[in-house]
Design brief:
The complex is a heterodimer of chains A (about 120) and B (about 900). Chain A has about 120 residues and is mainly alpha-helical. Chain A contains three helices and no strands. In chain A, helix 1 runs antiparallel to helix 2. A five-stranded mixed beta sheet of chain B has the order 2-4-5-7-6. Chain B has a two-stranded antiparallel ribbon with strand order 1-3. Chain B contains 37 helices and seven strands. Classes of the chains: A mainly alpha (about 120), B mainly alpha (about 900). At the A-B interface, helix 1 and helix 2 of A face helix 5, helix 11, helix 12 and helix 14 of B.
């Protein structure tokens, strides 16, 4: 099941120490994809650090964070996450197709990376 | 003002449209037209939107009006789960497909060794958690109806009747399209398509209201933002613990809710759809929540104080005279409620029917039921009844619970209840050490804590006495439902979720670590955790003819080419298809399986056909059955092997015995002829000389005397021969009685030497070692002397030295006494050494005085005495060694 980058010419048991540059890129992109929910969770926790409004505000201060800014921040993060997910989804789709051409088992990309 | 009649009309038309869509989709699917749009990732993504119920459609605005942005956590949790699909959902969907899971209860039960107890637990938990949620949906529909009724003073709305008819209508829809068939893959195209349509409607409705609010009621985005900031909810105000807890809860519920599991895993057509849904569904959620805060803020601003913020989506357009928009909003809310109720009822009914009703029914029917063919109808019936029962439960819950405020909180409570499944689910997917007992314990503890700290206090109504609420169970203050272990000041939701989840997870882990899983659990665990190594990639269901080809190849291997081709052609013509390859319909697969099972056994053929056609990996039971059969066959062949080995051994023994018998028979013949020969020689001379004595006249006295002495000698020889023969036969038959006495070896040797040499003309010179001969022995001394005499007499007879000598050497070695008789003659040739102990063998016949039985008798005697006599090689002269067991007790 192990598909390493350049295993043509090598025995099937032999696992190359380094993978091809392209495969390497794929794997790092996969790492990013895996980090995405963590990143999202962190970014969504940022609002907790915003100050709550002062119950007795001084006359001139605006108090805490205005709602409009909060909304802008959250929806911005949300959109970025969605865009990253789109990019990753398409990337996975492209590799899967490429592998399907050469190999009968398209989605074994899952089994070669540690989960 | 929109009349209620118009509303009901539109509503009915919409429902009719839904029925039509569901019907057409089901029809297309069953006809095998694989319409692309029916199986597109878009439909999959939209069907996921049943996550957004009426609670989120109407409730989100109300939630926002009360607590600002907190409502958004309900959407952020699922967003994170979807974005992390590569981690979790991909595995869940793969397992669901490969194990042909029908519900979340089924999945949990399958993971933990197909335990039905666990399935029942999950089912009960789900029913208790979801029923109030269904009631909440019914309430939202009724509320929206009554909103219109208020606006239309001409009509009076009977709420109870409305709820009843709504519930009944939903039940009919769910029964019609949710239980059409027992499709092996449990997919319901009609329902899914209708749900997708409803998803579009509710999104459009909310977007339309939102756009109306932002660009109709206010002056664009900037103005809206300013009005938001100026409103009651204009400042960021958040309890951090609630923010994090509810996000987590929403994420957990998104995975564990039975209805979500139904659309996400069970109805999943193709794993690749997940890739699209990973970004499309978060986008859907984003759009759903985009206008929530503006609607809430503007609603708070424009609508009179005290109006229900939960209904802003409806009342805002109504107050502005936008009846059409209000109608659309109503349809959106209606869609949210109905789609959730239908799918939830379907999912729950599958669980109830599969894990509670069917086991009971099968047990009550006894053995034969599972074999007969009517089970399918029973399953369908039990599902239909379950749907009706669940809807009835929701209806009665709505009628008899405190309608209103108590229901509003039920959304989060329901989430928290369902989230109790999460530890068992996640542990089951990623940890092979998770055991059934652990899952059961965790689930039970989580369930009880949730009930005690969340559901019962929230329901109120005397279910939990006030004294318990304020003083704790049994008056123990640390058992207060909302301040367990004396920790006060936490938000009730955070408190309940924290304790139930923490203790649930802890119990699950600890019990799993302590207990040992059954073999079935371990097999299933391996299959679940390593699902990517065991299952195929997401092939989809496009390669049907290829499947047939694969089946053909496999069948040829098993049945033989001709027979397989004939079978396949027969099946193709039976299906009426033009080619040689039939479509892999269930009926065909069943027949093929039966055909193959004739060759390879039922379990193996099921597994093989399943692997090619089912797209599901081999179930553990199949594997076990295969292993069982193989084990039986192995055992059988082992037995055969053993038997054949035994037969071979017996045959060899027989052959050996036969050879021995033949040899013995030949020996007997030889012996008889030898004996008769030996007897004849003296008899001949006796006859000859007695005839001379009788017939010849004129003999001298000397002659008479000589002839008589010859006759006497020969008669003596005959007697000796007969004595020897008797002796030998007695010895050989083992009937000899030994007269065991104790004595001195030297005395025995003295006697033997004097006897053997008596009357000899040229006696041997005997060398002895008197010292070593002084040994006390315990034996038959007469017989032993006989052996010695024989050996010495032989030396006397055959020693060809000029001055014959014999050395008698006594040694002790390894517990035996060895008496060597070594003479100084030329010894016995190697060839003769082999046979001197045989009967009638004489080394040199010319010197023969006896019958050649002496040494044979000696050997027999020594063997009876537990010793031996043999010829000693390595000496120049003849040498015999007599060995005796030495009795140490008697050693002198």
């Amino acid at each position: 099941m192990s598909r390493t980058g350049g295993d043509e010419g090598h025995g099937r048991q032999q696992t190359a120490l380094f993978v091809e540059r392209k495969t390497y890129r794929h794997r790092r992109l996969m790492d990013i994809a895996r980090l995405l929910p963590l990143l999202g969770a962190l970014l969504f926790l940022v609002p907790l650090m915003w100050p709550n409004p002062d119950p007795y505000p001084a006359p001139d201060t605006s108090g805490g964070m205005p709602m409009s800014e909060a909304i802008t921040y959250i929806f911005l993060v949300w959109t970025l996450l969605i865009l990253a997910s789109v990019a990753f989804g398409f990337a996975v789709g492209r590799w899967a197709e490429k592998w399907t051409e050469g190999n009968s088992e398209p989605s074994e990309e899952g089994s070669q990376w540690p989960r | 003002m929109a009349s209620l009649n118009a509303l009901v009309l539109v509503c009915l038309a919409y429902v009719a449209l839904l029925f039509l869509v569901a019907f057409v989709a089901d029809r297309k699917a069953s006809q095998g037209h694989r319409a692309k749009w029916l199986r597109s990732p878009l439909i999959y993504t939209l069907s996921l939107s049943i996550y957004c119920t009426a609670w989120t459609f109407y409730g989100a605005v109300g939630y926002a009006a009360r607590s600002g942005l907190e409502f958004i956590t309900i959407y952020l949790g699922p967003t994170l789960v979807m974005i992390g699909w590569w981690w979790g959902l991909r595995k869940l969907v793969r397992i669901g497909r490969s194990q042909r899971v029908t519900s979340i209860a089924d999945l949990i039960s399958a993971r933990y060794g197909k335990s039905n107890t666990l399935a029942i637990c999950v089912t009960v938990l789900a029913v208790i958690g979801i029923t109030p949620y269904i009631a909440l949906q019914l309430q939202s529909i009724t509320l929206s109806f009554s909103t219109f009724a208020e606006a239309d003073p001409a009509r009076h709305l009977n709420e109870t009747t409305t709820v009843f008819w709504v519930a009944a209508g939903l039940a009919v829809f769910a029964i019609l399209f949710g239980t059409r068939n027992l499709n092996a893959n449990e997919r319901h195209h009609g329902v899914v398509t209708a749900v997708a349509l409803e998803a579009v409607v509710k999104l459009l409705a909310l977007l339309a209201v939102g756009i109306f609010v932002v660009w109709g009621l206010s002056d664009g985005v900037r103005d809206t933002m300013a009005r938001i900031d100026a409103s009651q909810i204009g400042q960021w105000q958040m309890r951090g613990d609630r923010w994090a807890t509810i996000t987590f809860l929403a994420a957990a519920a998104f995975v564990c809710l039975p209805r979500m599991f139904q659309v996400m895993v069970v109805e999943n057509e193709d794993e690749r759809h997940l890739r699209t849904a990973a970004w499309a569904f978060p986008l859907y959620l984003l759009l759903m929540s985009l206008f929530v805060v503006p609607i809430a803020a503007i609603g708070l601003e424009l609508l009179p104080q005290g109006s229900n913020p939960d209904l802003f989506v409806l009342t805002l357009p109504l107050s502005q005279g936008r009846d059409g928009l209000a109608m659309l909003a109503f349809l959106g809310g209606f869609s949210s409620a109905t789609s959730m109720v239908i799918v939830a009822a379907m999912a729950l009914s599958t669980m109830v029917s599969n894990h509670i009703v069917m086991p009971i029914w099968l047990r009550s029917q006894g053995e034969g039921a599972s074999v007969s063919g009517d089970v399918r109808n029973v399953v369908l019936l039990s599902r239909r009844v379950s749907i009706a029962a669940i809807m009835a439960l929701g209806y009665f819950y709505y009628r008899y619970s405190g309608q209103g405020a108590a229901l509003a909180a039920i959304g989060l409570i329901s989430f928290a209840g369902i989230a109790q499944i999460l530890p068992a689910l996640v542990g089951g997917l990623f940890w092979r050490g998770a055991t059934r007992s652990g899952a059961l314990t965790g689930l039970t503890i989580g369930f009880v804590l949730w009930l005690y700290t969340m559901l019962l206090p929230a329901l109120g109504g005397g279910l939990l006495p006030d004294s318990v609420l304020s003083n704790g169970l049994f008056g123990l203050s640390w058992l207060r439902p909302q301040a367990l272990f004396g920790i006060e000041g936490l938000d009730p939701t955070v408190h309940a979720v924290m304790w139930s989840m923490v203790l649930n997870t802890a119990a699950f882990c600890i019990v799993s670590l302590v207990t040992f899983p059954s073999p079935m659990e371990r097999l299933q665990g391996a299959q679940f955790v390593n699902v990517f190594e065991h299952s195929h990639g997401p092939r989809g269901w496009t390669g049907q003819v290829a499947q047939s080809e694969d089946l053909m190849v496999m069948s040829q291997r098993i049945l033989g080419a001709g027979e397989a081709q004939e079978f396949f052609q027969g099946e193709a013509s039976r299906q009426g298809s033009p080619g040689d390859l039939p479509e892999p319909t269930p009926a065909f697969l069943e027949r093929l399986e039966r055909e193959l099972s004739g060759s390879v056994g039922a379990a193996a053929s099921h597994a093989m056909v399943g692997q090619i056609a089912g797209g599901s990996s081999v179930s553990v039971e199949d594997l076990l059955a295969v292993a069982d059969e193989t084990a039986q066959m192995l055992e059988y062949s082992n037995q055969l092997e053993l038997q054949s080995a035994e037969l071979a051994r017996t045959a060899r023994k027989l052959r050996e015995t036969n050879e021995k018998l033949t040899q013995i028979s030949r020996q007997k013949d030889d012996f008889l002829s030898q004996v008769s020969h030996e007897l004849r020689t003296p008899m001949t001379s006796i006859r000859a000389f007695s005839e001379i004595l009788r017939d010849v006249e004129g003999r001298s006295e000397d002659e008479n005397k000589r002839y008589a002495s010859i006759i006497h000698d020969e008669a003596l020889r005959l007697t000796r021969l007969l004595n020897d023969l008797l002796d030998l036969s007695v010895l050989e038959s083992g009937k000899v009685s030994l007269n065991m006495t104790a004595g001195n070896l030297a005395e025995v040797l003295d006697h033997a030497v004097s006897t053997a040499l008596a009357g000899s003309e040229n006696p041997l010179l005997v060398h002895r070692q008197s010292l070593s001969e002084t040994v006390r022995i315990s034996s038959d001394l007469d017989r032993l002397a006989q052996v010695f005499i024989n050996v010495i007499a032989n030396a006397q007879k055959y020693c060809d030295a000029k001055e014959p000598e014999i050395n008698i050497v006594v040694t002790k070695a390894r517990g035996r006494l060895r008496i060597d008789f070594i003479d100084n003659g030329s010894g016995i040739s190697v060839a003769s050494q082999q046979m001197i102990f045989e009967k009638f063998s004489r080394v040199s016949p010319e010197k023969a005085g006896g019958a050649g039985l002496g040494l044979a008798i000696c050997r027999e005697i020594m063997q009876r005495l537990g010793g031996d006599v043999r010829y000693l090689t390595g000496h120049p002269g003849g040498a015999f060694r007599v060995s005796l067991p030495m009795n140490t007790d008697l050693a002198a």
